[in-house]
Amino acid sequence: MDNVIIKYWIKPSTYNTALGIYATLPFLMVPALFVVNAPYGKFAGKLGVDWSLSGKWSWCVMEVISPITFAVSLVLTRPTGTPFQIIMISAWMLHYFNRSILYPLRAPSMAPIHILTFLSSIFFNLLNGYTNGIWIGRHSRSIHNVSFWLGITLWLVGFASNVYHDSILFKLRMKKKEKEEKSHKKQRYFIPHDGLFEYISCPNYFSETMEWLGYAIASNSSLPAIIFTISTTANLFPRAWRTHAWYKQEFQQTYPSNRKAIIPFLL
Predict the structure, then answer these.
(1) Strand partners, 212
(2) β-strand 113-114 against 52-53: which pairing, if any?
(3) Where are the alpha helices (H) located in the chain, listed in sequence order?
(4) What residues contact residue 251 under an 8 Å CB cut-off, 6+ apart?
(5) pLDDT tens string 202-231
(6) How far apart are CA 227 and CA 24, in angstroms?
(7) Residue 164 near residue 206, CB atoms below 8 Å
(8) Phi-psi domain of 156 (left: phi exceeds 0; alpha: psi -120 through 50; beta: other)
(9) How far apart are CA 118 and CA 40, in angstroms?
C-alpha cells in the first residue's frame, strides 16, 4: 500500500472525521427507516430506480467490506496483541465470517438487493470497519473485570441466538422454495415458530443488537463500538416494527396476537 495512503489512513484527523460522520448515521437512519422500507428481504423492490442485484452476491460483497477494512486498520496500527485485542478481534471476525460468507452460503435463497441499499451498506461498513479497527489497534483494556466478561457473554449469546434463528428462517425458505418448484407458482410465507419466535417477530434482529451491545460493554468505552450499537438499533428496530406489521397483515387470522416486534413482552 502506498505510503501516502497509509499515512492518511492512520492520521488522527482522518479517524476523527470518519468517526464524526459515523456518529451522524443513526440520526439519519431512524426517521428514514420509519418512513421507507429498506428494499431487501421481504421488502425487496423498487425505490426510485428499479435496479436490484443478486441477493447472495451483493450481500456477501457489502458485508465483507467491514472485516476487510477492520483488518487493514489493524495491520496499519500494529496492535501489540494483548488478550483484550485478540478476543475483541476474534469476536468481530467471527461475526462477519458468518455474516458475509456462511450466511449467504446457508441461505436456500435470498431476495434481490436494491442498488441503493447495496451502496449505502458499503458506505456504512467502510466507516464501521475503519473506525472500530483503528480503535482496537490503538487501545487495550484489562480482561480481569466483570464488565468485560459480561459483555463477551452477551456477545456470545447474541451470536449463537442469531445463527439459531437464521436456521429456522432458512428451513422455512427451503419449504417455500420446494412448494414453489412443485406447484410452479408463488407460495405464501410461513409463520416462524420455536425459540424466541414464540415471543417476537424478529429474534434475529434482537440477537444482533444483543451482540453489539455486548461488544460495546466489553470494549469499556470504545466510541466506535457504542456508535455501532446505536446504529444497529437505529437500523433494525424500525425494520422489526415494519416486519411485525407485515406479518400481522399477511396472516390476519392466524398470527399469534401475543408476539411483540423485537423485545419479548415489551416492544
Answers:
(1) none
(2) antiparallel
(3) 3-10, 12-35, 55-77, 83-97, 103-106, 115-138, 146-183, 203-219, 223-250
(4) 191
(5) 999 999 999 999 999 999 999 999 999 999
(6) 9
(7) no
(8) alpha
(9) 9
CB within 8 Å of 40: residues ≥ 6 apart: 55, 111, 112, 113, 114, 117
Predicted local distance difference test score (pLDDT) of residue 34: 61
Q: Identify the CA nearest to 12 among candidates 125, 138, 140, 129.
A: 138
Structure confidence by residue, pLDDT tens digits, 44-80: 455 556 688 888 999 999 999 999 999 999 999 999 9
* Helical axes 115-138 vs 12-35, angle rounded to 10°: 140
CB 23 within 8 A of CB 227: yes
- Burial of residue 80 (CB within 10 Å: 0-12, 13-18, 19+) is exposed
Query: Cα–Cα–Cα angle for 221, 266, 26, nearest 5°?
Result: 40
The residue length of the chain stands at 267
The C-alpha cell of 105 is what?
Answer: 452460503
- Rounded to whole angstroms, the Cα distance separating 119 from 115 reads 6
**Distance (Å, whole) CA 112 – CA 114:** 7
| pLDDT at 144 exceeding the cut of 80 | yes
